[in-house]
Write a structure and sequence with these properties.
With 809 residues, this protein is an all-alpha fold. The chain has helices at residues 2-19, 50-77, 82-124, 129-167, 174-205, 208-250, 262-300, 317-354, 363-389, 396-422, 427-439, 441-474, 485-497, 501-524, 532-540, 546-590, 599-637, 648-683, 685-723, 730-772, 776-799, 805-808; strands spanning 40-43, 46-49, 303-305, 311-313. Helix 7 runs parallel beside helix 16. It is globular.
């Protein structure tokens, strides 16, 4: 922590020195006035204002939160055997320790951002102190929002894991699928509702002249929280996962052998990486996309270019802005209703089809839920748009509906294209298995890389095809309502991709519950408890079937792996498309003209690619070093000459190792990203805008490739273990090697690129305005200082993290 204090002091000193040489800032997001939302609507004969619609929306959000909390307590009350409840409680306690440690890191990181906000608004813009404190408060609320929903997701998942494991003993497949999905829907609905409540409060009760700045502060805060929790969680979970998995090869034991002190850490990591991180990431994604759209609406909608090339309000421009903002939020509110209706219909249909079956494909109900929600969302999009903005123009409502529907369709198609490369039933996954059987780990890894590369190509094609439809639609008359309608269209595509938000979160959260349930089953050692059959029959009213239970949990884990994989490209895609809208806001604010003939533009593109590849290596280096430490500790302390579970002390030590290296890796990465952003902004605005575009594009394809290659390796191992039943063989050893390579690919580097892209873009709004407000010599000096700091932490991310030769002796 002393290192953190020194760096904090350094950052503050740099900003203090900079403040003296910086002049007044130009127009910025603080000058973006949110228009009055008291525009009139006629909703089925009822007259109401936009503000009243949002007030009713708060009621929907409160009901949605009550649904999430109701499901939380219902799941908590589901009975399970004490042995399993004790394991899930231990997992929760270690998760709680991890989250408390993360809160300390978030406080330090917030101080960096608070310093920038304070100096920019107070010293550069001479903003009154109460207003600055309001902006700072919203950045803190953004972090707290990410942190709180992440804690909620972690807690309900640690209730659901033991209940799912115990329900599997009934010998019925349906409850093993339905309970993790219930848990996921609880998280998804509550997450969206908390997000919308915060944003509606800004729209309704924050003064309009301050609302734009508060939105930016809120988005930066939630983005910072998501980046920290996503990166730390991704590093933590893969250190633990690799440490536990490698014992299968070294000692020929089962994956969740209770004697392995790494298994509890692995379960903690499942929640830290696959629950806490994605939940915070989802919270941030919905917020940032909304902020990007609001920023564009205020900057570009209802605007036109005058003869001298300046932006000016067109006739009725304020009314256009207000109506579009209310329409956007009405659509966001209705996603809660459409997701809940779709879930209820799908659950009833699935129960009818699969409720009494001993065997069924666990992926089918999840797939049908996504498609059903997609179809209902598209229908609601057209209906609501006609009612709310049908009077703004004869064809505006259906054109905007088509554009949003492109995004909604993408959110359904991208998971299908992901399953082609990652499902246990896919040809690519079976290619990995066949290659491994013939030539071991070498061809396993090569085949996984092939699958990842092909997936990035096809998913990129799908995104461009749907964006092209949106572009053509936007080009056919939307310029009568705004400047650069194609940019707004891309933002709406990202918005549409999030149109079934609770369902996207639900299928993502399904994975950690399914994974943990399998571990809870093994760690409880329930089969070895004397008289357990009679106890369960007496206390719970059924005869346990342990073999069926194991089979269901292993098969369900494969479905969880697949749908964890399907959620990643959706979030990554929205990050990139949403970031494009925010980048355009920067270009509009600074009136930039980017040209490939400009060398600064080329420099920015190359630098963006360089930073993406450094980040991928730095995040995996933290996993590599931490996993080395974890494996070394586990090998020395595992006791195979007994049937007793590993001691709590040994398990806690593995958790401590994972947390230590996760935070070391995260801090090096954050300071470097923070410093690169300020440095490139100070060097040149054109270079910086090109850099932001570059990290979005490079980051998209790096993330798609890594996420899907990792998912393919993971499910190839699952095919060997479940479908082929070849645990302990050479084929199994090769598949485990591939999976351990894929672990940091899919759950560390790829998923963390999402919040990194959004944080850099959001913070970039602040950074570039600080930079352009300074005299050129001051700006270049600051750029050099921050570039030096960034390179120091790039050096630290490898050379200070690497496995030292003397430590191997």
């Amino acid at each position: 922590m002393s290192a953190l204090k020194r760096l904090k002091s350094l950052a503050l000193a740099v900003f203090m020195a900079a403040a003296a040489g910086i002049s007044q800032a130009q127009a910025s997001e603080i000058d973006l006035n949110i228009p009055s939302l008291d525009v009139g609507y006629n909703i089925f004969g009822l007259s109401m204002t936009g503000s009243e619609i949002l007030m009713y929306g708060l009621g929907i959000c409160i009901l949605g939160m009550l649904f999430g909390l109701y499901e939380f307590f219902k799941i908590k009350k589901i009975p399970a055997h004490e042995s399993m409840l004790n394991v899930s409680h231990t997992i929760y306690e270690t998760c709680k320790t991890y989250m408390k440690q993360q809160s300390k890191l978030l406080v330090v990181l917030e101080l960096f951002i608070a310093a920038c906000i304070f100096y920019y608004f107070y010293y550069l813009n001479a903003t009154p102190m109460p207003k600055v404190l309001t902006i700072l408060m919203w950045s803190v609320l953004g972090i707290l929002g990410s942190y709180t929903v992440a804690w909620f997701g972690m807690r309900i998942n640690t209730y659901a894991n033991s209940r799912t494991a115990f329900l599997s003993l009934q010998g019925k497949a349906f409850p093993v699928m339905s309970l993790p999905l219930r848990s996921g829907m609880s998280i998804g609905v509550l997450l969206i509702c908390v997000e919308l409540i915060m944003m509606i409060i800004i729209l309704l009760w924050v003064p309009r002249e301050s609302a734009g700045a508060c939105f930016i502060g809120f988005a930066i805060g939630e983005s910072l929280g998501a980046a920290a929790l996503r990166i730390c969680g991704g590093i933590f979970t893969k250190i633990a996962d690799i440490g536990a998995d490698l014992m299968k090869i070294i000692f020929k034991i089962d994956e969740d052998d209770a004697r392995n002190p790494g298994v509890i850490a692995d379960c903690t990591g499942d929640n830290a990486g696959d629950s806490v991180g994605p939940t915070a990431d989802g919270f941030e994604t919905y917020g940032v996309t909304g902020v990007a759209l609001i920023s564009f609406i205020v900057l570009g909608a209802g605007m036109m270019y005058t003869q001298n090339g300046e932006l000016a309000l067109m006739s009725g421009g304020i009314d256009i802005q207000a109506r579009l903002i209310v329409w956007i939020f009405a659509m966001r509110l209705l996603m809660i209703v459409t997701s809940l209706v779709s879930y209820a219909l799908n659950n009833g249909l699935s129960k009818l089809l699969y409720g009494n079956k001993d065997e069924f494909d666990f992926e089918k109900p999840l797939t049908s839920l996504i498609w059903l929600t997609s179809v209902i969302s598209i229908l609601v999009t057209f209906g609501v748009s006609y009612v709310m903005i049908g009077d703004m123009g004869a064809d505006l409502w259906w054109k905007l509906s088509v554009i949003i529907s492109c995004g909604t369709l993408a959110a359904a198609l991208i998971p299908e294209f992901t399953k082609i490369f990652t499902s246990p039933k896919s040809k690519h996954v079976n290619e990995i298995v066949n290659a491994s059987r013939e030539a071991g780990a070498s061809l396993n890894i090569i085949s996984g890389i092939v699958a990842g590369n092909f997936s990035a190509f096809w998913q990129g094609i799908v995104m461009v095809a749907l964006m092209a439809i949106a572009y053509v639609t936007a080009s056919s008359g939307l310029d009568a309502y705004m400047v650069y309608p194609s940019v707004f269209a891309f933002g709406l595509v990202a918005f549409g991709m999030l149109g079934m938000g609770p369902v996207n979160i639900a299928v993502d959260s399904y994975g950690p519950v399914a994974d943990n349930a399998q571990s809870v089953f093994e760690l409880s050692q329930i089969e070895n408890i004397r008289g357990i059959n009679k106890t369960i029959e007496k206390d719970f009213g059924f005869k346990p079937d342990f073999e069926k239970g194991k089979h269901y949990l292993e098969a369900n884990d494969g479905a969880g792996n697949t749908f964890k994989a399907t959620a990643k490209p959706v979030l990554i895609g929205t990050a990139v498309i949403g970031a494009a809208t925010m980048i355009f806001s920067i270009i509009l604010l600074l009136n930039l003209k980017l040209s490939l003939l400009d060398p600064e533009v080329l420099f920015g593109i190359i630098l963006g690619g360089a930073v993406i590849y450094w980040f991928s290596g730095a995040s995996m280096q933290a996993v590599s070093t931490g996993a080395y430490r974890a494996v070394d500790f586990i090998k020395k302390h595992i006791k195979l000459n007994t049937k007793k579970a590993a001691s709590v002390e040994d398990s806690k030590e593995v958790v401590r190792i994972c947390t230590l290296y996760a935070q070391k890796g995260m801090f090096n990465i954050f300071v470097a990203i923070f410093s690169f952003t300020l440095a490139f902004a100070c060097f040149d605005p054109n270079l910086f805008a090109s850099y932001l575009i570059s990290i979005a594009v490079f980051g998209l394809f790096q993330a798609l490739y890594m996420a899907n290659a990792g998912g393919a390796w993971d499910n190839a191992k699952k095919v060997v273990e479940v479908d082929l039943g070849e645990k302990g063989t050479e084929l199994h050893a090769a598949s485990v090697v591939g999976d351990t390579v894929g672990d940091p690919y899919k759950d560390t580097s790829s998923v963390a690129l999402n919040p990194i892209i959004k944080f850099t873009t959001l913070f970039g709004l602040l950074a570039v305005e600080i930079a352009v407000s300074a005299p050129r010599n001051v700006s270049l000096t600051l750029g050099a200082v921050f570039m030096a700091i960034a390179l120091i932490f790039v050096w630290r991310s490898f050379y200070a993290m690497r496995i030292k030769v003397e430590e191997q002796a």
